Amino acid sequence: MAGNFYRVQCPDCENEQVVFEKASATVACAVCGTTLARPTGGKADLEGEVVETVEAR
Ligand SMILES: [Zn+2]
């Protein structure tokens, strides 16, 4: 199950959270609950701004 992780900044509260690029469930911000990523069957649709790519190791 290869895939990258992205550090995504929440558009509402600026919390930064790591999201798997192939998230299979909706990812919500841990602080305010805003949706950060939606599953699409392939790469997740990221709602926030990607601050950094965290390479899979
Ligand atoms: Zn937030």
Automatic annotation (TrEMBL):
InterPro entries for this protein: Ribosomal_eS27, Ribosomal_eS27_Zn-bd_dom_sf, Ribosomal_zn-bd
List, separated by semicolons, the cofactors it needs: Zn(2+)
- Molecular function as annotated in GO: structural constituent of ribosome; zinc ion binding
Q: Which family does it belong to?
A: Belongs to the eukaryotic ribosomal protein eS27 family.
* Gene Ontology biological process: translation
UniProt cofactor note? Binds 1 zinc ion per subunit.
Instruction: Provide a GO CC annotation, any one.
Output: ribonucleoprotein complex
Q: What is this protein called?
A: Small ribosomal subunit protein eS27
Q: Which Gene3D superfamilies match?
A: Zn-binding ribosomal proteins (2.20.25.100)
Zinc finger residue extent: C4-type: 10-32
Q: Tell me which domain of life the UniProt entry assigns to the organism this sequence originates from.
A: Archaea
Keyword Glycosyltransferase (UniProt):
no
Binding residues annotated for Zn(2+), in chain numbering? 10, 13, 29, 32
Provide this UniProt record's keywords sorted from A to Z: Metal-binding, Ribonucleoprotein, Ribosomal protein, Zinc, Zinc-finger
Q: How does it assemble?
A: Part of the 30S ribosomal subunit.
